[in-house]
Amino acid sequence: MRALITGINGFVGQYLKRELLENGYEVVGIDIHVAEEQEYMVDLLDLERVTDILQELKADCIFHLAGQASVAKSWVIPQKTMELNTIGTINLLEAVRTLQLDTKILLIGSSDQYGKIAENQCLIGEETKQNPKTPYAISKCAQEQLGVLYRETYGLKIYMTRSFNHIGVGQMRGYVVPDLAYGIAEIEAGLKNRLKVGNLKSYRDFTDIRDIVRAYRFIIEKGVCGTIYNVGSGRKYQIREILDLLIGMTNTKIIVEEDIQKLRVSDVRSVQCDHSLLSNDTGWNPNISIQKTLKEILEFYRKQLLK
Questions:
Q1: Phi, then psi, of 261 in degrees rounded to 5
Q2: HEC profile for 213-266?
Q3: How far is CA 147 from the centre of its chain?
Q4: Cα–Cα distance between 63 and 8 in angstroms, integer?
């Protein structure tokens, strides 16, 4: 089976490529930056180029990862965030439609679409009302509605996710876990004397990126067409708890200091995924512990700072 990954050279794209190759797929990719064979330079805002490349590649399935993926950055570049995440998706869907391709398409959404959840709410299921409070979340809600529209109107084979926070080695700094781990590694290396942090009271549902991409493969292979799936571990961790786990992995004294510049304009306080629909339909469950993931990320930055 030939799989096309949009945004193949991003954090998720590289892990998904490995997951698919290890499970017998032929993998091709498109990105605005290409690095290897079987990768094609494509700007999703260029409909003609998108159409030409889809006609050439004739993929059996498309994993649509390309777009602007940072909540924080969406406040800085809201226009570009909307353009990349909505117009880019429209162009992809239009190309599949006009070429009449019999291709499965996975659109990746976000738990940020749910927005702020009531204090007494426990697990967030797919039926939970969406309440987007960031430009990024709004762009992902729009992408999802486009998926529903093209599925119902044109019969495209579209699957959708609302993916919760995923972490792993290679995730860019600017996200909370890489920033915490890198900051600790800097202190260990004698480059900084304290760790500046944002809001430690929020809760997030963190999942290892390898479990996330396995879920994406399972959805394409076993999921129900037209269904929206929550993808996440099902356990919430307070950011303070994540920091404590990382500090517990070092013998160096870590002085923690709040930095108001790291506080978001809109910060969702509590997020926890109910992935029972995904598990029931595909058999997926997360396998990798948070401790293993955090240790690998910290070790990565330790080695990086020694170079």
A1: -70, -15
A2: HHHHHHHHHHCCCCCEEEECCCCCEEHHHHHHHHHCCCCCCCCEEECHHHCCCC
A3: 17
A4: 9
The answer for residues whose C-beta is within 8 angstroms of residue 231's C-beta and 6 or more apart is 161, 162, 163, 164, 207, 212, 215, 216, 273, 275, 278
pTM of the shown model: 0.95
The CA distance from 13 to 175, in Å, is 17
Residue carrying structure tokens 């517990």? 248
Cβ contact 197:262 at 8 Å: yes
* CA gyration radius, the chain: 19
CA 237, CA 31: separation in Å to the nearest integer? Answer: 33
Contact predicate 307/239, CB 8 Å? no
- Digit-coded pLDDT (tens) for 49-104: 999 999 999 999 999 999 999 998 999 999 999 999 999 999 999 999 999 999 99
| Residue linked to tokens 């927005």 | 115
The residue-averaged pLDDT of 220-231 equals 98
**Distant-in-sequence, close-in-space partners of 12: CB < 8 Å, separation ≥ 6:** 65, 108, 166, 209, 212, 213
Q: Which two tokens stand for residue 153?
A: 């109107």
